[in-house]
Amino acid sequence: MAQDSSLGAVGWARSFPISSGVRAARDWTRKHLITLGWDRTAPDLVDSVVLAVSELVTNAHAHAGTDAQLILTWDEKCLHVTVHDASTRLPRQRHADDSALGGRGLLLVDALADGWQVRRCPRGKDVIACFQPPPSTHAS
């Protein structure tokens, strides 16, 4: 794809109902990261983004009990991964003990992303994670 220097950002959005599962969100995300050429230039980053998407969409489905709206925005500095759900209850990092089967999703996102935040919205909340590619990584 030709690089358009006048384009400041590119983005994609899709809703993932609870019934479609998180696999569809992972596959959809990977497809869009491939369009940026990151599968060739930053494959480890692609895996990190896909894992974070999996955790955030799972949280929306399991904890909020709602569909998840996933938005990917690339502004040439950071890939913003936003997952919106309809619950007003804010997520919090838990410190699960070694025997717990869950409770590590936000810890993973914190470890994988360059930063993340939660923002209240009129109809729920957004969890936003930022991923910065290595300096040599360019959208193709």
UniProtKB/TrEMBL annotation:
<dbReference type="InterPro" id="IPR003594">
    <property type="entry name" value="HATPase_dom"/>
</dbReference>
<keyword id="KW-0808">Transferase</keyword>
<dbReference type="InterPro" id="IPR036890">
    <property type="entry name" value="HATPase_C_sf"/>
</dbReference>
<dbReference type="Pfam" id="PF13581">
    <property type="entry name" value="HATPase_c_2"/>
</dbReference>
<feature type="domain" description="Histidine kinase/HSP90-like ATPase">
    <location>
        <begin position="22"/>
        <end position="130"/>
    </location>
</feature>
<protein>
    <recommendedName>
        <fullName>Histidine kinase/HSP90-like ATPase domain-containing protein</fullName>
    </recommendedName>
</protein>
<keyword id="KW-0723">Serine/threonine-protein kinase</keyword>
<keyword id="KW-0418">Kinase</keyword>
<dbReference type="InterPro" id="IPR050267">
    <property type="entry name" value="Anti-sigma-factor_SerPK"/>
</dbReference>
<dbReference type="GO" id="GO:0004674">
    <property type="term" value="F:protein serine/threonine kinase activity"/>
</dbReference>
